[in-house]
From TrEMBL:
Signal peptide start and end residues: none
Official protein name in the record: Carboxyl-terminal processing protease
Organism of origin: Hymenobacter gelipurpurascens
GO biological process: proteolysis; signal transduction
Residues in PDZ domain copies: 109-191
InterPro entries tied to this protein: ClpP/crotonase-like_dom_sf, PDZ, PDZ_6, PDZ_sf, Peptidase_S41A, Tail-specific_protease
GO cellular component, one term: outer membrane-bounded periplasmic space
Gene Ontology terms, MF aspect: endopeptidase activity; serine-type peptidase activity
Keywords for the protein's UniProt record, in alphabetical order: Hydrolase, Protease, Serine protease
Taxonomic lineage from the root: Bacteria, Pseudomonadati, Bacteroidota, Cytophagia, Cytophagales
Sequence similarity: Belongs to the peptidase S41A family.
Domain of life (superkingdom): Bacteria
NCBIfam families listed in its UniProt record: prc (TIGR00225)
């Protein structure tokens, strides 16, 4: 027996009310249209005058379908989640960077660009499902409470976190909280037979975006900027001023892996290097509303002197704006590999429920007219595979694997040739270190064995390391063959099979990583970067260039 519902014909003796459904729905549609008009009218970002009727029809259609699904679908549904999903998929049709952030994720998404947070101030890692302190922040609540590198956190406020498959995000949520509140940590320390409780009072923790600033030699400074957050420019200005007082006359600015952030912080940083009134960046959007041009306007801290900018495929957005401006104005040489190619401007729009729409409103262009944005015509999936494709095509290893059409050729202020087409192409190409692609090295890292070995070493040799100044450690400490074999043995115990060929290939990289991680726990973040830079090919190339201001590479640049 067929039980599907069917439209039943009305009895012949009864007149068919053919207009009933229309008469009922028409007022509803008119009411919805009125509501739509009110909503759109109250929205400061009004639809384009080109197609207001299409926008209204689309709004009504979506609302009508969502209502039917919520009311009549065979199973219960979460209408809000469906709406969020539909919005996200709609934005994917626009470009890769227009996104919708639900209210429950908005705070976490915004925290990346904040320069501080409330918490205990501890860097941790998770080894074998055990939360282990890598380093307490110097002067922070955790250090003041007595936490040390290597301490294992067993419980937070009585809730076990060890052996519970605790994620990094879950630990962040447990350790962060309102300033002045307390958190009780149960820890076990090397050499102790019993766990102990430590009470930590949360405080404001700086979330620095200038990772490190130090003098490489008597004249050459190095500054690494990891992102452009709320406090980045102030941090950078203070760091540059401090290095100038130490005698800085030439600088390496490291923007590798910097994903961007606030544009105005980036342009202020560029202004510190560019003298006079020169263009830094311009944007072009629909109509004139979002068209802007930004020029240098202040007397900067370092407008003359050799300057090199380090970039790689992880440098994006605001980082590309800085690199592109300094390159186009012939103020700096850019060294490394082609940058990511993110040149779309997003406007954050807070919605009524606390969620956020980040809508692309314009494109970034360098002073010479190059668009920073790479193509996304192939769709989101192809766009997300771009870096993988670059690697497969050899771009990370060979400069001649990159080909530009003549139409993408541009000229800098002094006539040097640069290319558009997505990302910033460096003046000096440095290939990626192929040792990083050792499968054995990758397996060791994926099991967190390199970090664990370094932390265990610091705990076992704490007295010896405390007796050494960092300068002594930097010059005299070496990872021996015997220590590498100890790492191999630990890997075997953890299911990472020994690989003699793989070890030979990545031994130099492992020695540098282990030494840097030991320095991080024993001497702090600055020590970590100094050790890494001693062996880093891009950094060494940058130093060779910046220290030779008379080289042909520097010819034509506005340096004195």
């Amino acid at each position: 027996m067929n039980t599907e519902p069917k439209d039943s014909p009305l009895p012949a003796t009864e007149p068919a009310p053919q207009n009933t459904r229309r008469q009922v729905r028409l007022p509803l549609l008119l009411a919805l249209a009125l509501c739509c008009g009110i909503l759109l009218g109250s929205n400061p970002f009004k639809p384009s005058d080109q197609n207001p009727d299409g926008t209204a029809r689309g709004y009504l259609k979506f609302k009508e379908i969502l209502s039917y699904v919520d009311r009549d679908y065979v199973d219960s549904v979460n209408a809000e989640e469906l709406s969020d999903y539909a919005i996200s998929r709609m934005l994917e049709r626009l470009d890769p960077h227009s996104v919708f952030i639900p209210a429950k994720q908005q705070q976490q998404a915004s925290s990346f660009l904040q320069s501080d947070f409330d918490g205990v101030g501890v860097e941790f890692n998770i080894f074998h499902d055990t939360v282990t302190v890598v380093s307490p922040l110097s002067g922070g609540p955790a250090e003041q409470a007595g936490l040390q590198p290597g301490d294992k956190i067993l419980a937070v406020n009585g809730a076990r976190v060890s052996g519970m498959h605790t994620t990094t995000e879950q630990m962040f949520n447990k350790l962060r909280g309102t300033r002045g509140s307390t958190v009780l940590l149960q820890i076990i320390r090397r050499g102790m037979s019993r766990a102990m409780n430590v009470q930590v009072t949360r405080n404001r923790i700086p979330n620095s975006s200038v990772d490190v600033a130090y003098m490489v030699d008597n004249q050459t400074g190095y500054i690494k900027v990891s992102r452009f957050a709320t406090g980045t420019y102030d941090e950078f200005k203070a760091a540059l001023g401090d290095l100038r007082r130490q005698g800085l006359t030439r600088l390496v600015l490291d923007l590798r892996g910097n994903p961007g952030g606030y544009l105005d912080r980036a342009t202020k940083m560029a202004d510190e290097f560019i003298g006079g009134t020169k263009k830094i960046v311009y944007t072009d959007g629909k109509g004139d509303q979002y068209d802007t041009q930004t020029y240098s306007r202040v007397a900067g801290e370092f407008e003359e002197g050799p300057l090199v900018v380090l970039v790689d495929e992880g440098s994006a957005s605001a980082a590309e704006v800085v690199a592109g401006a300094l390159q186009d104005q012939d103020r700096a040489l850019v060294i490394g590999r082609r940058t990511f190619g993110k040149g779309l401007v997003q406007q954050p729009i807070t919605l009524n429920d606390g969620s956020e729409l980040r809508l692309t409103i314009a494109r970034y262009y360098t002073p010479s007219g190059r668009s920073i944005q790479k193509s996304y015509r192939g769709g989101l999936e192809a766009y997300e595979q771009d870096l993988k494709n670059r690697q497969q095509h050899g771009e990370f290893f060979h400069a001649d694997s990159i080909h530009f059409a003549d139409s993408l050729r541009y000229r800098t202020a002094h006539g040097r040739t640069v290319y558009g087409g997505g990302g910033i192409m460096p003046d000096v190409f440095v290939p990626r270190d192929t040792m990083a692609f050792s499968a054995y090295y990758t397996r060791l890292q994926s099991h967190n064995l390199v970090r664990k070995f370094a932390l265990d070493y610091v705990q076992a040799h704490k007295t010896e390391l405390e007796a050494l100044r960092f300068e002594q450690f930097s010059q005299g400490f070496r990872i021996s063959d015997a220590q590498l074999q100890q790492l191999v043995a630990q890997g075997t115990q953890e299911g990472v099979a020994a690989d003699a060929t793989g070890l030979r290939r990545c031994s130099g990289l492992l020695r540098g990583q282990l030494k840097a991680l030991i320095a991080r726990s024993a001497y702090g973040k600055s020590a970590y970067f100094q050790v890494l830079n001693e062996e880093d090919a891009e950094m060494q190339q940058a130093l060779r260039v910046v220290n030779d201001g008379s080289s042909t590479l520097m010819n034509g640049l506005s340096m004195k």
